[in-house]
């Protein structure tokens, strides 16, 4: 048997018994089985319903992503990024993995790298919390630091090239590695857990943005399921997202956020502005005050970005109440406050950074108890 190629030359059929060995596929099958096992052994995260006397007619729900084995919503993302890399043939038995991160993603990726026996290098800003650095190292990951938040990308690319490794690139791949139509992603899980509630279809979902991947998944899912739910994304000081959404200019840059995990110096490729119905930007003092207030009312500490989410949620709730509407609002607990004992929960750090949370604390406590929302 002979085939002709495009130049018309005859091509001999290869002789029998030259099929490649399948060691690499055997490894990728065992790697997928290990990732599936981690998922199978994990329960779904709680959807908390804290009660606030001031919020008449408005039900608040918080999806608690801090209870994943690696302590944040990034457990889902890291798992998806590993599956994406393996299924694209990029992550193999001897691949060194490299990531640019503000910390949480690197913690989760270090965990999965250890599970699969792969080398892992995290490129992070110097300011990353000590607790996250220790968690990465405890999973055998190597931490590599840069001075400015905006330097993590180029440094991660450089290290990946130098080591012949694979750059996981959460900021590009978050929106595409996640199966946004369902498959028990965070949106799918929220809507299933809401099914028996008084207002099962939330009026609003509220979320901050780091990669933008979670808001992309939430926004796509509510469109795909043809729901009336709207999506509000809450941005922070010194982040590029809000201006980009408002003006449509995706080249906008900023100096970089103090709220770890969210607010970025550039508009990340995983940020999908077209699925966002509304955006607000809040001061860091408001985010951190909201983290303190919510921590007290939940009797456990939550992280700074959860404070941002909660402040945005209160803003939406206040607007709904002013319009005389009732319904439900859902947001996320992204991680625990234990990771920020040296920063958001440290009075000296707040003073050094000239952040006075007292006015926002008073205002939020008054709102949650009496329903009156008066900005300081
Ligand atoms: C990543 C992260 C977020 C934002 O989630 P994205 O899906 O990346 O936009 C919020 N809080 C924390 C603690 C994070 O690590």
Automatic annotation (TrEMBL):
Top-level EC class as recorded in UniProt: lyase
Compartment annotation: Cytoplasm
Family: Belongs to the cysteine synthase/cystathionine beta-synthase family. Cds1 subfamily.
GO BP term, example: L-cysteine catabolic process to pyruvate
Protein name, per record: L-cysteine desulfhydrase Cds1
EC number: 4.4.1.1
Gene3D superfamilies documented for this protein: 3.40.50.1100
UniProt keyword annotations, A-Z: Cytoplasm, Lyase, Pyridoxal phosphate, Transferase
Cofactor requirement: pyridoxal 5'-phosphate
Coiled-coil blocks: none
Annotated GO MF terms: lyase activity; pyridoxal phosphate binding; transferase activity
InterPro entries, alphabetized: Cds1, Cys_Synth/Cystath_Beta-Synth, TrpB-like_PALP, TrpB-like_PALP_sf
Pfam families: PALP
């Amino acid at each position: 048997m002979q085939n002709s190629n495009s130049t018309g030359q005859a091509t001999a059929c290869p002789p029998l018994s030259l099929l490649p060995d399948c060691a690499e596929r055997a490894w990728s099958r065992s790697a997928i089985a290990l990732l599936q096992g981690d998922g199978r052994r994990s329960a779904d995260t709680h959807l908390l319903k804290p009660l606030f006397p001031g919020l008449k007619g408005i039900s608040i729900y918080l999806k608690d992503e801090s209870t994943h084995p690696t302590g944040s919503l990034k457990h889902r993302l890291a798992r998806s990024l590993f599956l994406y890399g393996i299924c694209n043939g990029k992550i193999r038995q001897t691949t060194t993995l490299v990531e640019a991160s503000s910390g949480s993603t690197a913690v989760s990726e270090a965990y999965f790298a250890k599970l699969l026996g792969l080398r892992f290098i995290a490129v992070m800003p110097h300011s990353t919390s000590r607790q996250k650095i220790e968690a990465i190292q405890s999973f055998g990951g190597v931490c590599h630091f840069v001075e400015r938040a905006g330097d993590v990308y180029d440094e991660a690319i450089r290290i990946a090239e130098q080591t012949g490794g694979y750059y996981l690139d959460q900021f590009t791949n978050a929106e595409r590695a996640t199966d946004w139509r369902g498959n028990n992603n965070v949106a799918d899980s929220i809507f299933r857990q809401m099914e028996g509630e008084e207002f099962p279809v939330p009026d609003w979902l509220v979320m901050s943005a780091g990669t933008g991947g979670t808001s992309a998944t939430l926004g796509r899912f509510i469109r795909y399921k043809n729901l009336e739910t709207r999506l509000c994304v809450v941005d922070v000081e010194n982040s590029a997202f809000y201006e980009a959404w408002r003006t449509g200019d995706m080249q906008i840059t900023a100096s970089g956020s103090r709220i770890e995990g969210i607010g970025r110096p550039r508009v990340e490729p995983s940020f999908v502005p077209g699925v966002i119905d509304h955006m607000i930007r809040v001061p860091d003092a408001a985010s951190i005050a909201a983290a303190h207030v919510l921590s007290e009312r939940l009797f456990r500490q939550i992280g700074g970005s959860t404070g941002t989410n909660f402040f945005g949620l209160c803003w939406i709730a206040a607007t709904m109440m002013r319009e005389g509407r009732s319904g439900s609002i859902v947001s996320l607990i992204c991680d625990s406050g234990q990771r920020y004992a040296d920063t958001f929960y440290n009075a000296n750090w707040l003073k050094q950074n000239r952040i006075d949370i007292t006015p926002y604390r008073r205002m939020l406590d008054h709102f949650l108890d009496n329903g009156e929302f008066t900005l300081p």
